[in-house]
Write a structure and sequence with these properties.
The chain has 346 residues and is of the alpha/beta class. It has helices at 5-12, 52-66, 114-127, 144-147, 189-201, 221-229, 243-258, 289-297, 309-317, 321-324, 329-344, and strands spanning 30-36, 39-46, 73-80, 99-106, 132-136, 155-156, 162-163, 165-167, 170-174, 208-214, 234-239, 263-268, 273-274, 281-282, 301-304. It has two domains: 5-80, Fe-S cluster assembly (FSCA) (GMP Synthetase, Chain A, domain 3, 2-Layer Sandwich); 90-344, Rossmann fold, CATH 3.40.50.
């Protein structure tokens, strides 16, 4: 009887990551599966300093594999990439000294304007009088350096800490500050994990009220590294009103719920287009999707951001619209979101 890779992964879905309710397959930890004449070999990648974690996963995974009909032997190889000293794992995720609240801005798919939302939200929080940092955690597709109009290279302290770039009252860090415009970030999973850890813990953030993390879309190594090592105050999920975006927004929200990170709310981006000539609203991507999803998740609908030409133009110029035109409808919506977040996370 032949054994398929699908059978192997289905069996491994019964193996939970210690301290989490989520399984090792959905966390993306299973890196390879080899099947030959009833012998199954699986490679799993972990980022942990706790020796009990790989031992527990190896034991449970091999037990699960032996339940598959036709398996003669099962071997699990663990590839460990340890986080930096002092980092927590799983539910033991630790706070970054000097930072009161860390907020992850996430989306289940690309193209919903998540980075634009993260950038303008950070500026709006700063305008309330808070001390704010913004970390671009999208290693493969960094965009914060463009949105803030700076190509300045970060410096390092004598203690080998990275000094963030300061722009519009924010402290910024992005892979875009370290790459040329045409240089792609070609990195394997372990390197991505290491860069993510460095950005969060080896940056001299100083004293901050809020650190906003612009996560890459979807779920994967970067998201797992963050929830394993950093104590998040909560996450915001960005979506558009259309169903195809909402499906992936649910996945993002489910990821945070399963690792016990509170979802602070939904932001519906590209909610509508208001005609400059008569102010009439056009629901280009449908209507009500964000509100329905917020009700389903039992979280607040934090705001509805319209499609707005000045927002795009200001972003291309490297000035977030909230900083360039505080009286615009988009800026007003972000101001409301920022004020409500400050009440939720004082």
């Amino acid at each position: 009887m032949s054994i398929s890779e699908e059978q192997v992964k289905n069996a491994l879905k019964s193996v939970k990551y210690p301290g989490f309710t989520r399984d090792i397959v959905s966390f993306g930890l299973v890196k390879s599966v080899q099947i030959e004449k009833g012998e199954v070999k699986v490679q799993i990648a972990l980022a942990t300093n706790d020796p009990n974690v790989p031992a527990a996963i190896k034991n449970e995974a091999e037990k699960a594999l032996r339940t598959i009909d036709g398996v003669k032997s099962a071997k699990v190889l663990i590839d460990i990439h340890a986080p930096p000293a002092g980092a927590g794992t799983g539910m033991g995720a630790t706070r970054i000294p000097g930072i009161r609240h860390i907020i992850a801005v996430a989306s289940g798919k690309g193209g919903v304007g998540k980075s634009t939302v993260a950038a303008n939200l950070a500026v709006a929080l700063e305008q309330t009088g808070a001390r704010v940092g913004l970390c671009d955690c999208d290693i493969y597709g960094p965009s914060i350096s463009l949105m803030f109009g700076t190509r300045e290279r970060p410096m390092a302290t004598e203690e080998n800490k990275i000094v963030p770039i300061e722009q519009y009252g924010l402290r910024l860090m992005s892979m875009g500050f370290l790459l040329d415009d045409t240089s792609p970030a070609i990195l394997r999973g372990p390197m991505v994990t290491r860069y993510t850890q460095q950005f969060l813990r080896q940056v001299e953030w100083g004293e901050l009220d809020y650190l906003v993390l612009d996560l890459p879309p979807g779920t994967g190594d970067i998201q797992l590294t963050i929830v394993q090592t950093v104590a998040l105050s909560g996450a915001i999920v960005v979506t558009t009103p259309q169903e195809v975006a909402l499906i992936d927004a649910r996945k993002a929200a489910s990821m945070f719920e399963k690792v016990n990170v509170p979802v602070l709310g939904i932001i519906e981006n590209m909610s509508y287009f208001a005609s400059p000539s008569d102010g009439k609203r056009y629901n280009i991507f449908g209507s009500g999707g964000g509100e329905r999803e917020a009700k389903r998740l039992r979280v607040p609908l934090l705001g509805q951001i319209p499609i707005d030409i000045p927002t795009r133009e200001s972003g291309d110029r490297g000035i977030p619209i909230v900083g360039e035109d505080r009286e615009s409808p988009v800026a007003a919506e972000f101001k409301k979101i920022a004020e409500n977040l400050r009440k939720t996370l004082p």
